[in-house]
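Task: sequence design from structure.
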């Protein structure tokens, strides 16, 4: 599941996740937009915060 799909499914806002994992809302927004890939530490924090719904393989760039 992508991070965007998780937000849509759970109704969680990016700022809520950011606060939960100790990252800035702008970091989460840049990840959602595909402007940046998260660090391994951030990937681990997101995976834990989403109860494993969003894992490391969910950040691979998709072919157009």
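Answer:
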């Amino acid at each position: 599941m992508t991070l965007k799909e998780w937000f849509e499914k759970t109704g969680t806002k990016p700022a809520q996740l950011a606060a939960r994992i100790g990252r800035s809302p702008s970091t989460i927004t840049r990840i959602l937009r595909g402007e940046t890939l998260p660090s391994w530490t951030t990937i681990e924090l997101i995976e834990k915060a989403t109860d494993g719904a969003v894992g490391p393989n969910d950040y691979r760039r998709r072919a157009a």
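The two ends are 18 Å apart (CA to CA).
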